[in-house]
Amino acid sequence: MNRKPRLLVVTPRPPIRGVLGDTLRSRFLLDGLAEHYELTILTLAAKPLTAEERTDLELIATELIVYPRNRIKSAIGALAHLAAGKAAQVGWLHSPTLLREVEQLVVGGGYAAAFVQLARFSGIERVLGDLPLVLDFVDALSLQWERRAERGGLAGVFDRLEAARMRQAERDLMRRAEVSIAAAPDDGRHLMRLLPERIDLRVIRNGVSLPEREGDIGTAARGKAPVLVFSGNLDYFPNAHALRWFSAEVLPLLKKRRPDLRFLAAGKVTSEEVQALAQSHGVEFTGFVPDMGEVLADADIAIATMQSGAGIQNKVLEAMAVGTPVVATRLGNAGIQAVHGREILIASAPDRVAARIESLLDNPELYGTIARGGLDLVNRDYRWRASVDRLVLAIDEAVVLRSGERNEMIAESEPTRSRSRFVTVMSGVLGKALRSLDELLFTGLRKLLLVCVVGGLLLSILALPLVALAMSLLSPGPLFYSQERVGEDRRNRDTNREGEERRLTNLGGRPFTIWKLRSMIVDSERSSGPVWATRDDPRITPFGSFLRKLRLDELPQLWNILRGDMNLIGPRPERSAIVRDLMREIPGYNRRMTGIKPGVTGLAQVRGGYDNSLKSVRAKLLYDLAYKAHTIRAREHFLMDLRVLLATVPTVLFRKGAR
Question: The whole model's pTM is what?
């Protein structure tokens, strides 16, 4: 039996089952990763694990290493980082002991990659050596602190300072990571703006595991006092902030019309300031809830009136999963991007939030629409299995990028304070010169490729009479063969969901007609439909086999290049029917054509051969994604295209992979 590859996992808190927030995300992702990898989990714990908790973690971890996190040492670390001009929250989790352990494990070898959660582990990138790194930011913490700074005052000044320092920590980590991950599109876009030259960042959303509510979905309880619920860790600042805002600004408006209305705050709370809301506004606190699904299912409406924070609000997904409609602010819905009026109700001003809640309680039809719409949304787009599949693909891609498909890692650092003005100015001049050289190289390559394309097309035209004569004698039928293929996808897959109808008819890219010299019998797919070519395929004619072995059947695609449908180098264009099937079977398959044109030849074509199974397509997908990573900067693009062209020559001359 083949041993599973080893994965080094570093996470800030023990991923214990049943805990909420980023720990919940960590546990469900690791549950899935344990099916593919042997996990070594390194984590920090504020208190010793119980025997039950350790046993639970050992179900997924081949090796479990837990280091104690002392609050006094954490506070000292935070102050030391502040004094050094670094983010306090990075210092709060800074553990030299854990970093030394990571370094020793990496030196020992044997790991396929490292999976690190949260940017608060900034600094870990310096001890990973050459180990591929997949970094799960979860939330963009700098964005969270920027939003928190809006409260103003002295606290707001600190928040803005912390946001700036966190931005630098996130940049440092992204420079080192082969693949970076965010939980929500807003966070992903924010991180991409921090380091635009490194755009290999994807969104892997949270999922839902709560059981669906039995009985009628989409009906509010009648004949009893309506119940609203706000769920989550109530000691967490964004949750505490949202709860205080709703209690002070919205709840009084609702109780004027519905004095019997109950408002529950479900979750852990130790803050006396938050607990005081029970006396001042009549908020009912449940304390820690072992099964949040029961509380949410018994409520009439779930509230997510976030005023700060970032990422995905699990409270929204959990409520939707049990059929409870949600009223949220724009920020509460930002990570999920549910459709207002169909899957959620959104408002930001206090009177508008109150009006949304009233409309749900007064209108059974609207209540049912929102409840069923939210349930359909989580069933369609928010399941942990799909998120795990995307994460496994990201780890596989990181291994490919680190193992040699990538040239030199991008490591341009911003000028530091210790640099003299002369060094800073000269660095800027040198940087501009290198960028100009990049553009010159890439422009020259494009001109060279254009000359090759035009020259190849002219030679093809001259050779066509001989090919036509041979085909008429050996394989009667049309000279050319046309077929619909899928080309460049120019849409952003992780932005808003306003274009819902277009998204549901997604083909994976723009369809176009490709031209080839016919190498198969006429109507070769009449009975079978679209299928891959196989070795010794009976549909291929003897003369067609000759054309394929020398890749001469591809020559008419030079016309597609001149038309702008294709490039000479890029991912292979596939048929739309096959693309739809592959998008269902292989997570991330649609990413291969996003923002890039297909090619006559490419990295996957010269390294991976022909498609003949899902396994071969998955392997070639990694090559396509690796090629895309090189197109970010002109110099890398130039060198990669040159490598592919040089590799294409022996592939054609020695007929490698020909069918």
Answer: 0.62
Cβ atoms 376, 605 nearer than 8 A: no
Q: Give the lowest-confidence range in 206-220, 262-276, 311-325.
A: 206-220
Side-chain-side CA neighbours of 35 within 13 Å: the count stands at 9
How large a percentage of the chain has pLDDT more than 90? 17
Contacts of residue 501, defined as CB under 8 A and 6 or more positions apart, other chains included, come to: none
- Computed over every residue of the chain, the mean pLDDT equals 78
Q: Which residues, in sequence order, are CB contacts of 98 under 8 Å at separation 6+?
A: 10, 42, 44, 67
d(CA 385, CA 248): 39
Q: What is the pLDDT at residue 552?
A: 72
The answer to whether the CB of 230 falls within 8 A of the CB of 318 is no
Asked if residue 119 lies in contact with residue 63, where contact means CB atoms within 8 angstroms, the answer is: no
Packing angle of the helix pair 614-630, 634-653 (nearest 10 deg):
140
* Residue of 213 and 65 predicted with greater confidence: 65
CA 366 to chain centre: 33
Copy the structure tokens of residue 224. 């009893």
- What is the residue-wise DSSP string for 564-629? TS-EEESSPP--HHHHHHHHHHSTTGGGGGBT---EEE-HHHHHH----SHHHHHHHHHHHHHHHH
* Whole-number Å distance between alpha carbons of 252 and 556: 72
Mean pLDDT of 370-383: 88
Q: How far apart are CA 232 and CA 225, in angstroms?
A: 23
pLDDT tens digits for range 77-90: 889 988 888 899 88
CA-wise closest residue to 190 among 123, 145, 239, 241: 145
CA distance 392 to 532: 26
pLDDT of residue 493: 41
CA distance 409 to 389: 26
Burial of 307 (0-12, 13-18, 19+ CB in 10 A): buried
Query: N- to C-terminal Cα distance for the chain?
Result: 33
CB atoms within 10 A of CB 171: 18
Nearest to 651 by CA among 544, 550, 517: 550
Quick: pLDDT tens for 339-364. Answer: 999 999 999 899 999 999 999 998 99
Residue 366 DSSP code: H
Which of 439, 401, 449, 438 shows the shortest CA–CA distance to 624?
Answer: 401
One-letter amino acid for residue 251 of the chain: L
Q: What is the mean pLDDT of residues 36-57?
A: 90
In degrees and rounded to multiples of 5, residue 2 shows phi and psi of -70, 135
